[in-house]
C-alpha cells in the first residue's frame, strides 16, 4: 500500500523554526517528484514547494522563498521541509504528496501553529 | 501567478442530483488541470487529472471537461459519500495554484 506519513508539526513562536518529515512507503520513492501543500484553518489548499527525484531541482511559492527549504533522503525514503523565520500566516496543516503535475496520494497532514 | 476561480463557492444538492462545478483560470492553461475531493479532517483525494482523465478507482459518475481557461467537474448522480469540498489545481506553470474550493452540502 502506498503511504505517506508526516510528522514534526507543533506549536512554535513567531520567528522560530520547525522541521517537518514525511515517511514514504509502498512505492519507489526515488522515482517520484515530491511536494508539500498546506492548508490554513478554514482556507483552501496552497502549494508550498516541490523537489525532483534526485533533489537537483526545487521550487517554492514566493511567500516561503528564503525561509523554507525542501529536501529529501532517498536512502531513507523521506521528504523534509525545514521551516525558519516562521510567521503567524504559516499556521496550517502541512501535507506531503507524491507527484509533480498532480498529487496522489497525500499524507494525513501535520499541524503547524505559529503563535506566541 | 495563475488564479483559479471556482463557482459556486458552495452548493446544496440532493442525492441523485446532477451537479456541475466550474473552475476558471486567469489565463490559458491548456489541459493542465486536476480536481480533488476533500472531506472534513481528511487529506485531499485526486479525482481527475489532465482536465478529463479519471483517476483509477474513482467512480465513473465523476467526469471532467474543458481546456484553456474554462473547466468543469460533473457528478452525474450524487451519492451520500460525495458531499465534500472540491478543489481544482493547475500545473501549467509555477507557482502551482489551487482554486478556493466548492463546498457541496446536502439539501
What key phrases describe this protein's structure?
A: 116 residues; mainly beta; 4-stranded antiparallel sheet; 0% helix; B: 107 residues; globular
Written account of the structure:
The complex is a heterodimer of chains A (116) and B (107). With 116 residues, chain A is mainly β. Chain A is built from no helices and ten strands. Chain A has strands at residues 3-7, 10-12, 18-25, 34-39, 45-51, 58-60, 68-73, 78-83, 92-98, 110-114. In chain A, the strands form two sheets. A six-stranded mixed beta sheet of chain A has the order 2-10-9-4-5-6, with no helix packed on it. Chain A has a four-stranded antiparallel beta sheet with strand order 1-3-8-7, with no helix packed on it. The relative contact order of chain A is 0.32. By secondary structure, chain B is mainly β. The mean pLDDT of chain B is 97. Classes of the chains: A mainly beta (116), B mainly beta (107). Chains A and B meet through strand 5 of A and strand 4, strand 5 and strand 10 of B.
How much is the average pLDDT of chain A? 98
> What's the story with the biggest beta sheet of chain B?
7 strands, mixed
Cα end-to-end separation of chain B: 35 Å
Strand percent estimate of chain B: over 45%
What's the main sheet of chain A like?
6 strands, mixed
Q: Compute the number of helices of chain A.
A: 0
User: Beta-sheet strand percentage of chain A?
Assistant: over 45%
Helicity of chain B, in percent? under 10%
Q: Radius of gyration of chain A in whole Å, from Cα?
A: 13 Å
Identify the overall geometry of chain B.
Answer: globular
Instruction: Give the count of helical stretches of chain B.
Output: 0
- Oligomer state of the chains in this structure: heterodimer
Number of strands of chain A: 10
Low-confidence stretches of chain A: none
Physical arrangement of strands within the biggest beta sheet of chain A: 2-10-9-4-5-6
Label the structural class of chain A: mainly beta
Low-confidence stretches of chain B: none
Amino acid at each position: 500500500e502506498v503511504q505517506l506519513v508526516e510528522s514534526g508539526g507543533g506549536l512554535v513562536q513567531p520567528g522560530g523554526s520547525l522541521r517537518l518529515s514525511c515517511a514514504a512507503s509502498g512505492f519507489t520513492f526515488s522515482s517520484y517528484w515530491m511536494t508539500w501543500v498546506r492548508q490554513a484553518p478554514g482556507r483552501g489548499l496552497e502549494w508550498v514547494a516541490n523537489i525532483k527525484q534526485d533533489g537537483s531541482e526545487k521550487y517554492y511559492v514566493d511567500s516561503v522563498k528564503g525561509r523554507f527549504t525542501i529536501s529529501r533522503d532517498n536512502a531513507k525514503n523521506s521528504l523534509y521541509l525545514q521551516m525558519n523565520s516562521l510567521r503567524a500566516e504559516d499556521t496550517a496543516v502541512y501535507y506531503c504528496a507524491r507527484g509533480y503535475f498532480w498529487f496522489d496520494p497525500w499524507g494525513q497532514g501535520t499541524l503547524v501553529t505559529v503563535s506566541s | 501567478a495563475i488564479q483559479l476561480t471556482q463557482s459556486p463557492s458552495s452548493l446544496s444538492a440532493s442525492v441523485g442530483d446532477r451537479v456541475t462545478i466550474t473552475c476558471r483560470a486567469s489565463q490559458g492553461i491548456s489541459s493542465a488541470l486536476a480536481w480533488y475531493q476533500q472531506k472534513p479532517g481528511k487529506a485531499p483525494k485526486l479525482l481527475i487529472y489532465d482536465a478529463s482523465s479519471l483517476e483509477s478507482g474513482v467512480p465513473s459518475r465523476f467526469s471532467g471537461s474543458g481546456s484553456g481557461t474554462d473547466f468543469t467537474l460533473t457528478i452525474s448522480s450524487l451519492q451520500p459519500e460525495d458531499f465534500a469540498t472540491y478543489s481544482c489545481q493547475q500545473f501549467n506553470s509555477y507557482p502551482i495554484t489551487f482554486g478556493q474550493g466548492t463546498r457541496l452540502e446536502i439539501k
